[in-house]
User: What shape does this take?
Amino acid sequence: MRATCVKIHLDNLKSNIHQIQSILEKNTKICVPVKANAYGHGIIEIARASVSSGVDYLAVATVNEGKQLRKAGIKCPILILSIPFTDELPELVRLNLIPLVYEPEFINTLDSVAGKLHKKIDVHLKIDTGMGRIGCKPEDSVEIAKHISVKKNLALTGVCTHLAVSDSLSSEDIDFTKKQIALFFSATEEMKKQGINPGIRHCSASGGTLLYPEAHFDMVRPGLIIYGYFPSPESKQIIKKKFPSFDLQPVMELESKITGIKPITKGTSISYGRTWIAENDTWIATIPIGYGDGLSRSLSGKLSVTIKGKKYPVVGRICMDQCMIEIGEDGNPEKHLISLFDEVTIFGPGENMNTAVTLADTLGTIPYEITTLIMPRVTRVYI
Assistant: This one.
């Protein structure tokens, strides 16, 4: 096996799921998003571990992702969070996937396709309460729900929305989130008054799950927290104040091994562009990981990694397949501190390690991007 790999700590995943279950009402369902290869963690293995931990639904972005799950023998309900293309609908119906719907024309087409295949499928109505992405207006939702209810081949089994800033603690964003929740609640209550059962109501991703218990409704869709990260340090403080034992553990660990160690003299440059020049005599280690594996080139000169519990800086530009670390006199073979093939942790759940948040903060992005960037050529090892 290649020296560079991703370790997926399934016990941490299961622990995170159980932590989330502990702050929900007994009958509140959980839908785990496993889209984008489960945020880089591996769609099949994460789906299986989630279902075995008592998760009720899975969510994907595409019909093909749903197909992967069905081929792997996963039978639980699977939501498709993005709108599929018309040509994909026959396969969607055959695989018994649950699409989000909101446009009458699309609803008509889906009903027709399901009828031709002699199947009746579940659908969830998507309401746009402020995300501005997909979904009908709240004031149109009851009529669209009625439109679905008269279709012979469709069953309205859920209604949902998506909160845009539920992870933010600014007063303006809190007001916006509360407005979204109120609009969603009002729409589903009006459906009930009109004799329409909205089915499973769901709107909360990680932020809503942690910070807005009134938005749990019948199901939550936690993404980031399933994989071990709080939406923000502030959200962590709030939830731990309310639930002191609540904790999350990162599921992904990115590691490599040292494949080269050599001494260099003062004035020696390292890597492309000669952006780093040794200020003193020192030792350099090379590891076989680079931006071709998903370790962003923009981290050059900004990243430190962990070897035997100690941090060492990555120096020079990160290459496509390799990068270099200054290990100083710890690399001197006479000291026996760092040797060939020692493990190097880029990020993970252990002490004195970076996490995906560390790298995300350095790059000015979010942890989702860090984990989903890890390329398929990096072997996933499930622990």
